[in-house]
Amino acid sequence: MTKRVVLAYSGGLDTSVAVRWMIEEWGVEVVCVLVNVGQDTDNAESFDDIKARAIAAGAIACVLVDARREMAEEFCASAIFANARYEGKYPLVSALSRPVIVRHLVDQARKFNAHAVAHGCTGKGNDQVRFEVGTHALAPDLEVLAPARNWGMTRADSVDYAQKWDIPIKATKEKIYSIDENLWGRAIECGAIEDPWAPPPEEPYTLTRVTNPDPVELTVSFAGGLPVAIDGVVLPLADLIGELNARAGATGFGRIDMVENRRVGIKSREVYECPAALALIAAHADLEDLVLERDVHHEKARLESRWSELVYDGMWFSPLKEALDAFMADTQRHVTGDVRLRFEAPGLLRIVGRRSPKALYDHDLATYDAADTFQHADSEGYVKIYGLGVKTWAARQGAKNSTPPSS
Ligand code: ARG
Q1: What is the pLDDT of residues 91-131, one digit of tens each?
Q2: Which of 367, 366, 216, 339 is closest to 280 using CA atoms?
Q3: β pairing state of 267-273 and 337-344
Q4: Does residue 15's CB lie within 6 angstroms of at least one atom of ligand 1?
Q5: Is 402 a catalytic residue?
Q6: How buried is 258 (Cβ within 10 angstroms: 0-12 exposed, 13-18 middle, 19+ buried)?
Q7: Active site residue 98
Q8: What's the CATH fold of domain 183-355?
Q9: 256-268: per-residue pLDDT in tens?
Q10: Which fold has domain 4-175?
Q11: Pick the catalytic residue: 68, 85, 98, 354?
Q12: Burial of 195 (0-12, 13-18, 19+ CB in 10 A)
């Protein structure tokens, strides 16, 4: 019986060529899985057209899965809990979508009785790691194939290959940018971006072109750590993200320009546009300032960067990531309240207010006015004992830097 492979299909040049190449070189049947994670931001092409291309390339079937809700409510939601930004900047756009895709690849592999799954990644990036480690975590028995690591074709060769096999691709030999997008934002690589000194070109941006020069003020409400409403209007998370991408993006907010460390040892310059992701994380983190107890808050900050690294590194389905999720979820029980955001073109966000029924902020303790209830006299003994060790050290051993530099 002919072996079957389930391919993560995007409709781009590489995955389209991969369909035919695997059929010709490896003698397999190919089933394509096209997962909608919210990548159709500009409706450049319909999913029906993309499915038709998979069939034209030789796939025996192309299954379209709408995973937008899952992407939002499970993957983006966990990223919000963890205020997730890899290397303090990148909100994990592509890293969050790959485990969603993997889950559906494995599901379809079972339904189609396939022996392997496949992806179109090259050997240089992080996405191959995420596809492969993710698949091994969910289905240790499945093989993972990476035709683009084997075929040794340049981009121009691939275009010729597609033409030879009558695969109706839109790509040309001079492709400028590599773009990956979903609900959480857009990741842009290649072309002029590869020179880290060159300012990023304007043209690949779509979500963050300034179309509204006026300031935008809005309130995001959170319940148990999750954003639930904008200006009091309750929305499913996927829609809330979409609305914020539009409203914040129109003021030019959400761009990132960074040099990042890939899992495979390469430093790469990347640009991103992620208005909703960055705004929601900023608002969420601000609300946490108001409601989290100090030790929990400080420990959480340390674990957030670990969570982000694990997810970046393809460890979504892993025991440490699951354990950290349990910690994050526990910390979110009181993260309920409203945050006021003010966007000013081009690209500025300020958080201008926050409130919560669970706030640990106590006005009568914090105030310097007549309402003050803080017991000032209690501080005398407290501070003495707090500093006792340093005082003893100074008396017995002396502080090295006690003399000011001569002026
Ligand atoms: N550098 C980012 C990451 O590793 C973005 C990758 C984008 N992927 C792509 N195939 N263009 O998550």
Answers
A1: 999 999 999 999 999 999 999 999 999 999 999 999 999 99
A2: 339
A3: unpaired
A4: no
A5: no
A6: middle
A7: yes
A8: Argininosuccinate synthetase, chain A, domain 2 (3.90.1260)
A9: 999 999 999 999 9
A10: Rossmann fold (3.40.50)
A11: 98
A12: exposed
